[in-house]
Amino acid sequence: TQLEDGGETEEDQEPVENKLTEQLSGESLSLLCKIGNGLSHAYVKMDLRGKSLTDISIISAFVHVRYLDLSDNKLDSLAALGSLTHLLTLKADNNRLTSATLPQMPYLQRASFQNNKITTTEGISHPLLEVLNLNNNLITQAQFDPECLKKLSALEMRGNQLTTTAGLGLPKLQRLYLGENLITELPDLDKCTSLKILHLRGNSETTNPIEKLDGFSKNMVALQYLNLRGTRISALKPEIKKIKCLPMLRGLILRESPVSKEEEYRIEVIMNIRNLERLDKDMFTDEERQEAQELYRQREEEGKLSENNPEGAMFLD
Fold this sequence. Notes:
The protein has 317 residues and is an alpha/beta fold. The chain has helices spanning 22-27, 236-240, 265-272, 286-301; strands at residues 29-35, 40-47, 67-69, 89-91, 110-112, 131-133, 154-156, 175-177, 197-199, 225-227, 251-253, 278-279, 282-283. It is elongated and about 80 Å long. It has a 13-stranded mixed sheet with strand order 1-2-3-4-5-6-7-8-9-10-11-12-13. The termini are far apart. It has 4 helices and 13 strands.
């Protein structure tokens, strides 16, 4: 990024070389714990936040570290972490990383790489990983291997450049945050059979210009909350029917999308998704449910509902 005077922003400038030293390493250590057979002790927590580091080669000697924070530095590689096989948590936010590739870490449970320049999800294959944060990077496609991420339950990929949900079919995933991407298609979601929370929020203009809700299925038996705020869904009746297959859906956000401006918007939604409790964070009232029931009966009498409609008696208990 060029400034008006022809200079560069601080982010674009080549950082001054700054290697991690033994002294700084020692000062950053804390939390003395038993290691190995319990007869020896070592410090297992290392906090290196905000040190302007460009080279952490020396860190490979600290094989007992379990909790590592490298956030707010100027690192472009994590290759030196290969020997830290006891890591439980890793934070490397706000660096210059273009990849989150690491050797498989057998005990790693939580990892955060937000606000970097990562372009791919390849090389993230840690068997015990439960929480992964890749917010605000440059990822265009998700390429996760479900066999390598059997424990992953929470994934954050807000603010990337994803155009599709392909590659995100992780059976154990419970929380998935994909707001502020470029998503238009929703494949592989039906593989997320444990998913409870799904965020697909856009900004009504450039991000997540979703128009169709194809991709949801009755296999998604756990989904309770779906955020589609600011997307481009404009055809209420045909699209809302595509998510009526979700048996546990209780909260739905459609505000700031074209459908939210339609007449009888709330009534149309609750008429199709009877178990829904909240729409745009407002609880449905008994009056709205009664109105939906009356509208359903009216349409049935007018012949607008097929006699063979499998949901034909949903309001006629």
